[in-house]
């Protein structure tokens, strides 16, 4: 079975649970194939948690969910050393971060100190507790959710934390027909309960390695760099995108090309994924925020202005 067949198996498996959201599923999977973390920002009840669980089950990975609240402590995530009176030694009790897929639910309800307990794991795939560094399992992916309309009792994610997420995705409301099918499908039990792995975690690791081999020409690389550099020079932005954003577009373009059944990247791949990598990394100037300008419009403006390379193979 080749890479395309395995990818389609995962997409079809998740699509049985998340109806009518093919592009979001593909973008989330592309991010996972790129070894990237995902931030879901949307209203409650549209399936953010279910999508995370479905993806984790489909690739045979261990899954832990952490409900972020103001009283959640960093040790509740990373784990803690507990003294055992029988052995007269301290024993480490693993936190949920030592799972392959971690869902940080309503992450902006946690305090900045608790939010930052994820940073080391997201950046270096390791966690340090009581001076001891422990490697996280592979694959390791953090999926976080936050509600865009609820401000009471929330702590907005700082730029350094946002920059650790490869993409920021919105699921959106289902269509009329899909919503009716959701009612039918959940009449007796939730379909996520019966979802089975279609690839193993070791097979998924191989998929991640295969995605890295997707061909990207120098002209496409330069195209990506020009797009990101344009954010640093845009008059509406206080802060442009760092080189981590360039690398994010590069990797996500490779994964998107693989999902489309190609072993090479084309400019359209870059155009599709760039908004999801860039929009949460840009900081608008205060006057532009007050005017209601959105990061998406700036990305669209940049993409329309940058010259598209012609020769891609």
From TrEMBL:
GO terms for molecular function: ATP binding; ATP hydrolysis activity. Residues 34-175 form the AAA+ ATPase domain. Coiled coil: none annotated. Keywords: ATP-binding, Nucleotide-binding. SUPFAM superfamilies: P-loop containing nucleoside triphosphate hydrolases. Belongs to the MoxR family. This is ATPase associated with various cellular activities AAA_3. It comes from Halothermothrix orenii (strain H 168 / OCM 544 / DSM 9562).
């Amino acid at each position: 079975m080749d890479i395309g067949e395995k990818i389609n198996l995962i997409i079809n498996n998740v699509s049985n649970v998340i109806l009518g959201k093919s592009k979001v599923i593909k973008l989330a999977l592309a991010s996972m194939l790129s070894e990237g973390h995902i931030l879901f920002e949307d209203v409650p009840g549209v399936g953010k948690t279910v999508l995370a669980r479905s993806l984790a089950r489909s690739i045979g990975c261990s899954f832990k969910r952490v409900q972020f609240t103001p009283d959640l402590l960093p040790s509740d995530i990373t784990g803690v050393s507990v003294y055992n009176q029988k052995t007269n030694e301290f024993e480490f009790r693993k936190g949920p971060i030592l799972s392959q897929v971690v869902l940080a639910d309503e992450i902006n309800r946690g305090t900045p100190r608790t939010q930052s307990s994820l940073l080391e794991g997201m950046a270096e795939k390791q966690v340090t507790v009581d001076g001891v560094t422990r490697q996280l399992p592979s694959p390791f992916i953090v999926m976080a959710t936050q509600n865009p309309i609820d401000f009471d009792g929330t702590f907005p994610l700082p730029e350094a934390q946002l920059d650790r997420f490869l993409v920021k995705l919105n699921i959106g409301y289902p269509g009329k027909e899909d919503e009716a099918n959701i009612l039918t499908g959940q009449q007796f039990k939730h379909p996520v309960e019966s979802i089975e792995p279609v690839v193993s975690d070791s097979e998924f690791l191989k998929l991640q390695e295969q995605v890295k081999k997707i061909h990207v020409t120098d002209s496409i690389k330069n195209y990506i760099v020009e797009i990101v550099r344009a954010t640093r020079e845009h008059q509406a932005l206080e802060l442009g995108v760092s080189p981590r954003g360039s690398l994010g577009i590069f990797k996500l373009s490779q994964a998107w090309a693989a999902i489309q059944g190609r072993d090479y990247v084309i400019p359209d791949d870059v155009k599709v994924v760039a908004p999801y990598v860039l929009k949460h990394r840009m900081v608008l100037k205060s006057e532009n925020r007050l005017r209601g300008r959105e990061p998406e419009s700036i990305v669209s403006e940049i993409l329309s202005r940058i010259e598209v390379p012609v020769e891609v193979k």
